[in-house]
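Schema walkthrough. Field components (list of strings):
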Amino acid sequence: MSTVSFLKNIRAALISIAGSLAAICIGLLLVAIFLVAVGRNPVETYIGIFTSAFGGSFAITETFVAATPIMLTALAVAIAGWVGLLNVGAEGQLYLGAIGATMIAITIPNAPSWQMIPAMFVVACLFGAVWSGVPAILRAKFGVNETIVTLLLNYVALLLVEFLIHGPWQDPSSSSWPQTMAFSDAAQLPHLFASRVHPGLFIGIVMAVFFAFLIPMTKPGFIIRVIGGNPKAAAYAHLPVVKYIIISMLVSGAIAAIAGFGQVSAIEGRLRSGISPGYGYTGFLVCWLARHNPLAIIIVSIFVGGLLSGADSLQLSTKLPFATVNIMQGTIFLTLLMFENIIQRFSSATVEAKTPEANI
Amino acid sequence: MLSPTAAPAKTKTNNHITSVENMLPNAKQGISIRLESISKRFGNVLANDAVNVNIAAGTVHALLGENGAGKSTLMRILAGYHQPDGGSIKLNGNPVTINSQVQARKLGIGMVHQRLSLVPSLTVLENILLGDSKTSFIIDAKKAYKQISAKMAELGFTFDLFSPVWRLTSAEQQKVEIFKLLWKDAQVLILDEPTSQLSPLEAEEVLSVVRDLASSGRTVILITHHIEEILKFASEITILKNGQSLSTHKASQIKAADLAKLMIDDSVNQIQKIPAKTKNEIYLKLDNISLHQSANNRRLTNINLELLKGEVLGIAGLTGSGQDEIAGILSGQIIPNSGTLYLEGKELPWKVLQDPCLCAAHIPAHQFYGSIPSMSLIDNFLLRDISNKQSLMLNKKHIQEKAEKHINQFQIRPNNPSNLAGNLSGGNLQRMIIARELNKDANLVIAVNPCAGLDMAATQYVLQELRNFANQGKTVVLISPSLDEMLLVSDRIAVVCAGKITGVKDTCEISSESIGLMMGGLE
Amino acid sequence: MADPFIVAVLAGAVRSGTAVLYAAAGEVITERSGIINLGLEGIMLVGAVSGIAIASITGSPFIGISAAFVGGGLLGLVHAILSIRFQANQIASGIVLTILGGGLSAFFGIAYVGKQINSFSAVKIPFLGDIPFIGSIFFNHDIMVYGTYILIPLLAFLLYKTKLGLAIRAVGEDPDSASAAGIRVSHVRYFATIFGAALAGMGGAYLSLVYAQGWIENMTAGRGLIAVGLVLFAGWDPLKAMFGAYLFGGAQSLELRLQAIGTDISPYILGMIPYLLIIIVFTIGTIRQRKVNTGSPTALGLPYNPNK
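Field assembly_structure (string):
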């Protein structure tokens, strides 16, 4: 690559970062106006969020705890996105992963950790893959739009969890609470750095790096890029489009499921409803804003994780309802989305992974 | 409320002719046009350089020139899409400024673009009513039908008003576009390459309508590079070259060869045809192929076709007669319902044609099918090399060198291999696809409309390359709307009509007229 | 012959289906213009909360419904600005609206949890309501159900018989050609997006003001998405959307009736039925769509760039 085009790319990256920061600032300003309108002090609120997200080691580790499922679901969305599919079902796939892990944890409660954890991991991935496999096959065989199907399956997944924790899997010792019994110690992922950070974070980072290498540098990566860029050209060159679409979607579901496995095994220690406050949806937007770039996903997830954990703890201290987090998230994503177009106009960057457009 | 012609829409009469008549006393006799030293610059490109054209009222006037000669720009200025940097426009001797399409329409000037502006899923009637200021908010379809059919009868048009546009033939669609202008009371009709997608018979059909319109007093300007047509249907011809008006001729006083010479720098070289040494050696044979229904609702019945080594076989036919489906089968995109494939004498399964290594090189009908706009030229070249031979890791250096070689060989501009394919112009994108396909190690090339969007010199080059490919003992299948192209390079021409092969003839034995008749199923 | 259980289920189908119907009818108009609005979920929630808030302040459910119409329309305006002015990815914009609408509705809804409001009561239509079977299924409802009986044919008329409808269809199919014919593409799309979202807002208000008669967080439970799914099943036709909405309503009504008469099946399993039904119906719709093109707007979801 020549120096000129290298400099061009640097310039594009800088414009992109500056534009994103400007968009976030405008988003925060809009939320501030909202906070004033409902009688809150925005400065206090923001300082509160920042200190509970990044002030001190506990805050930082909590940010990483929240970033973990976001990173994994965002990667899941990205993998589907590279072959041109919109997987908006990471939320449901996350819950299926949680169900799979729980199934192992409560059916063989006395197994030792070295059997338990891999078994939970594998079954979680399988369950998640089944959940994404349904829309994948409907898409590949009949051309059914995967956006709608993955979204609807999220609701089914939630109801499935409700059914299990109100029914067959309910902890008999606490019949008033809809939740399973606590996992045995062997079924709990180890915590690191004397915090709630768990190996899921590293699985996410390793995966992101792996894909950052696979997609631009290898033959399967090239085929994935072609399918995502123009499936008609892929069919023209006789590339195995259907096979790649189904495999990508299965891998996508499996990775989202790892997020659910992490939530039940390392954070909650049991299955109950509400193990995810919409991580799957947040992951979708994170992936989209990182333009399907796996390394950018790592950074954006940590930022959004900080926002979520900061706003979450703020809820306790200032009695702002949890809904404020969603308003804040929604507004910031909204301004980022608005700026996306402006940024792209200014930086004529060579975008590697094309963002899939809707095709219904 | 949705029409930009809001101002005239408010007056109840809406008679545009009135306004033209007020300004131009002789509108009934038609409008003459005088373009005087029109100049237009786009960035660094001087598209029109002091162009002068005089167009008499009630005539068909042709603008002839190569791609990029400035024909379209000049006409887009007349139709109000662009404003000229200099020069003046006079209608019937009165100077006018045309600063918008709306104003051009008010002056009675309308333009049919090369890419038709019809909504395929809507009916013809709905397309005519779309954005029509004469229609009230609640559409009275019966009344509109009556009025429109009356006008159609008056002008001699026939098409089904209730048919969705996608069901019409290309010629009918072209006529609907022309009628739309007339419905809006256009007196000056600008037609940009109206016959580029039409077969000779269809072109004849459309152009005779156009000639009739001119003889009834309307002024028609025809943008084209099809010399034969011009001599038959236009009365005067202005040649544009490099943004300048070269000369104007009476059609009755000039010969085709002279026009061609004026239009381009070098006269057409004859393509070098080497008769195949191993003629009659069959490379591939399609035996009794039938396809019940393709994606476009077309079928093939009992196709028998032999492709010989060392030949160029042209397949001619009206749009949608089945030639695209035959190309689809040969390139492995479509698997037929019945029939047998023989490759070098051996009966083989259809899957063979889908093997990335063994499959044919294929220049597809639409550039979009053969390229990935969001990826670099390097990656687009790699598309054909991603077979089993390719190792798991991509060898970036090797790939880039190969791409640079292709880019230089076919003079693709801009020549940066990291450039995105989507940023290339149509002509350069076509060169990229041809460069890739002709360099694919294949025994068969299927070229569908390979010269679309290329200028004369590039067309010449591509046709020569296809010929060279055959001269090496390989096989080329050429499908093109231009019979001249096919006659120039093909050894044999197969004609398809309504999904059947109506004949295979040696090129030296036939004329374009007899092929035209076979295409229409008349011979 | 009119088994009271069946009548109750079918009458319930109309009631349950009405909220989805408002949203689906609006989405038909929006999608016909080439814009897909996946944010209906959030828009319905905002409609539900603004409906109940204004109705409980003013005491008038009519004003509540109007407020929902405006609230939904405002969120639709946001989607329109993002997808038309800024040419953003419409799916991403829809997800943003879902999150934002969910947040806003939950925030302002807290004050209305458990609050009593004046609702519309069922009014039996004289004569029509007395027709056996049919009467009790279709003509013994509240005014908002009757509203759809007028709205849906009106939308079909708008789409197929007026210049605006013609423009909407043309713009969704081939914006370049529509623009060449003098249609202002973005104006038409703004209208269709805002109007569609406003109707979805009314659908949300139907849930809070009439159907549930109270506010519950996330009370739409996927109905916005179901509406989007139904639009394809309905082949982008308002009248067929009515049928689809009642199909969904029927599944839900059956589920509730079964729970009411007591069955062994878990309510959570029964609750999956409407979603699974929509997935099946959506699949069937797609397969049929591929065989005969039933009016799928070709430019759906694609931004229009006139300078291209």
